[in-house]
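4.2 Preliminary Data

To establish feasibility before requesting continued support, the project team ran the inverse folding procedure on a target of 190 residues. The structure was first converted into the token representation described in Section 3, and no sequence information of any kind was made available to the design step. The complete token record follows.
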């Protein structure tokens, strides 16, 4: 079952859920609002002929930071990585789903392509997969409400929550938008 505002507030009070810093009026009827940080990873378009998932290509993306009131312009068809302002920490019996704000979706902004699931045991800022499917550029700002998290209890605590040494979790503790680390699957085989 999806947690209600009462259950979210209880999880925050007991430490099963940590959101830091939490925004004013962040708790909604069945979700919690998350905001956009100032850091982005942008693809270096037209410099590479392809993306090979087996290769570690640090130069494929580069970091970009905006100031307090400076817009980040997301052009039509563009895909960038952003980050939540909030650090999110989940207990080992709690999962979250990242969803976009409907008002932004109506402008053509998508906040995740496939990574909308947050595992039990997660701790860190969330990387957002931002896409503009509109025909006009969209200006994004530091601190704006960018999405929402909904939460569900597991039937039992996870035996191996995210970050467990046996899982080789790739992104635990991240504090900036983090590029794909799928290449590590292929390094382990070699």
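Position-by-position output of the design step:
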């Amino acid at each position: 079952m999806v947690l209600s505002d009462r259950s979210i507030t209880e999880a925050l009070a007991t430490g099963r859920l940590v959101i830091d810093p939490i925004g004013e009026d962040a708790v909604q009827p069945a979700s919690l609002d998350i905001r956009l940080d100032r850091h982005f990873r942008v693809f270096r378009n037209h410099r590479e002929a392809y993306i090979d998932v087996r290769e570690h290509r640090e130069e494929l993306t580069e970091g970009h930071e905006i100031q307090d009131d400076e817009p980040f312009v997301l052009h039509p068809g563009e895909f960038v990585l952003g980050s939540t302002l909030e650090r999110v920490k989940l207990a080992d019996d709690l999962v979250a789903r990242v969803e976009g704000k409907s008002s932004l979706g109506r402008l053509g902004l998508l906040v995740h392509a496939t990574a909308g699931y947050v595992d039990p045991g997660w701790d860190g800022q969330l990387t957002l997969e931002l896409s503009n499917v509109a025909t006009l550029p969209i200006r994004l700002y530091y601190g704006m409400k960018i999405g929402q998290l909904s939460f569900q209890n597991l039937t039992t605590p996870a035996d191996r929550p995210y970050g467990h040494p046996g899982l080789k979790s790739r992104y635990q503790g991240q504090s900036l938008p983090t590029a794909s680390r799928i290449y590590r699957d292929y390094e382990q085989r070699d």
